[in-house]
Amino acid sequence: MKILVVEDSPQVAETIMDYLALAGHRVDCAYHGQAALQLLAQERFDVIIMDVMMPRLDGLRTVERLRADGIATPVLFLTARDSLEDKLAGFRAGGDDYLVKPFAMEELEVRLEALSLRGPRGDMGVLCFGDLTVDPASGRATRAGVELKLGKIPFQILTLLVKRAPQLVTRQEVLDTVWGDEEPDSDALRSHIYALRNVLDKPFPTPMLETLHGQGYRLVTP
């Protein structure tokens, strides 16, 4: 297996990598979420081990972003948090398995092998809401059969909104998912929402993108 370990503790990362390498696997490492996203944009892995609590960009937001980018690699969350709500949050973010620290290396390897055999997620196909379709893997979106020409960030925002539609997505959720810990200035989100609205709504008779002032954004069907 080719495995990516995303873990902010060098000691923990080295222990995992040494064990898996001795077991015959190819292993690479990233020490925070931003580094993981950069690596995953360049290389393919069979499975990802993802720590939850990390600086700059935590594991949950990292997985949400890679799923929004259409990366279907199985993810095993590794964390000391063991409550049901924590586990559910991991699965909602796009995780495939959840292992609580401390753990046995043998169990970690068996779980990784099971995820690798299962292969990439099968639910990363086209997303639909009303007459809107979004394909995270190809970066394409259409409305009523018309292709929407969107930049990278407006497309990420649209992907998040259509995944949650018709539920409200808070402004902070958009910031966390798209930018992680590197939040832009106050005008950046507004300008990207404006760009998204111009492409998604302006050429069509009825709007889909709603802004609830002081709350967030949502998609509605005409």
From TrEMBL:
Signal sequence residues: none
Domain of life (superkingdom): Bacteria
List the GO molecular function terms: phosphorelay response regulator activity; transcription cis-regulatory region binding
Keyword Transmembrane helix, does the record have it?
A: no
Domain named Response regulatory: which ranges? 2-116
The source organism is: Aeromonas caviae (Aeromonas punctata)
Positions carrying 4-aspartylphosphate: D51
Keyword Metal-binding in record: no
What this protein is called in its record is Response regulator transcription factor
Q: Which CDD domains match?
A: REC_OmpR, trans_reg_C
The record, for Gene3D superfamilies, names: 3.40.50.2300, 6.10.250.690, Winged helix-like DNA-binding domain superfamily/Winged helix DNA-binding domain (1.10.10.10)
Q: Which residues form the OmpR/PhoB-type domain?
A: 124-221
Annotated DNA-binding ranges come to 124-221
